[in-house]
Amino acid sequence: MKFETINQESIAKLMEIFYEKVRKDKDLGPIFNNAIGTSDEEWKEHKAKIGNFWAGMLLGEGDYNGQPLKKHLD
Fold first, then answer.
1. Residues 47/19, Cβ–Cβ less than 8 Å
2. One MF term from GO for this chain (predicted)?
């Protein structure tokens, strides 16, 4: 999928597309499910949080308050 404009809506759509594929992947799915959980509600929260991260990075918007690198090093 190609996006013409980067905005909150396109970031949210990208999160849906990307994480749908991650959840179905035979290698990545179990890793992410172990870290995030298996319920749609847990994934909804994760996608919103990461969407806020990207909105902050790309648009200077969002209210992400976390340390993403630390999560990847743990």
1. yes
2. heme binding
